[in-house]
Every structure is written in C-alpha cells, then in structure tokens.
Amino acid sequence: MKKIIISTLLSIFAVFALVGCGEKETKQEKVAYKYTTVQVYEQACIKCHGKHGEGNPEKKTPALNDRTPAEMAQDLYDVKNGGTGFGGSGTDHEIMEHNMKKLIDKGYDYDIDSMAEFLSYLAKNQ
User: Fold this and answer.
1) Stated pTM of the model
2) CATH number for the domain including 111?
3) CB distance 78 to 93 below 8 Å
4) Beta-ladder partners of 56
5) Measuring CA to CA, which residue among 84, 78, 85, 75 is closest to residue 119?
6) Which of 38, 68, 79, 109 is buried most, with the most CB atoms less than 10 Å from its CB?
7) pLDDT, tens digit, for every residue of 57-116?
C-alpha cells in the first residue's frame, strides 16, 4: 500500500514539475524608434537606393524593390546583425553593415518587417 501511495505522489509531483517545463510565452518587446519607417527611408536610404528602391548603378547600390518582403526582411536582418548568419540570404553586405551601424548611431534604426513591407509597397507603386 505504501508503494502505491508513494508512486502516486511521485507521479503527481512529476506532472506538476513538468507543467512548468513547456515553452515559455515570449512577449515581443515593443521598441520605440526615433523615426518612422518612411522617415528612415526618406532621410537615410533614398539617396543611394532611389525613390522606389530601384538602386543606383553609379553608386553601386543594389535595387531593393526586386525581392519579396520575406527575402528583403532576411537581407535587412543580415545587414543589421553583421552578416549572413544561419539561414542568411547569402549576399555580401559588408559596406551596408558598416553604414547601418553609423545610421543606427544617428537614430535611423527601424523595424525589419516594417521596412520590408514598405519596400514591397514602393515596388508595387512605382
């Protein structure tokens, strides 16, 4: 009888202990940016990447309007995080990585997904 009670208590304890082992809900922190996505693009990106994200061959800046929002988000992630990490787009962003650090220092940081959607909007509304 003691064995049954002990096993039952251990089972109950194990169930309660494992309940806390599941995935924790992660709340995405809201970041307050100094400028809106549009302001960042108009004040910091348009000079090199063009009004509609078409790029500028003279400055050797790539077009930004030829990718899906998901592809663009991956490229922006690479730029903001210092290169192509796991699952990266495989593109070389060394110059822009340097420029991005300078832009962030000046307050031109942005939400990656918002910028990717904005660039998609620019591409559709040329």
Assistant:
1) 0.69
2) 1.10.760
3) yes
4) 61
5) 75
6) 79
7) 998 889 999 999 999 999 999 888 876 554 445 456 778 888 899 999 999 999 999 999
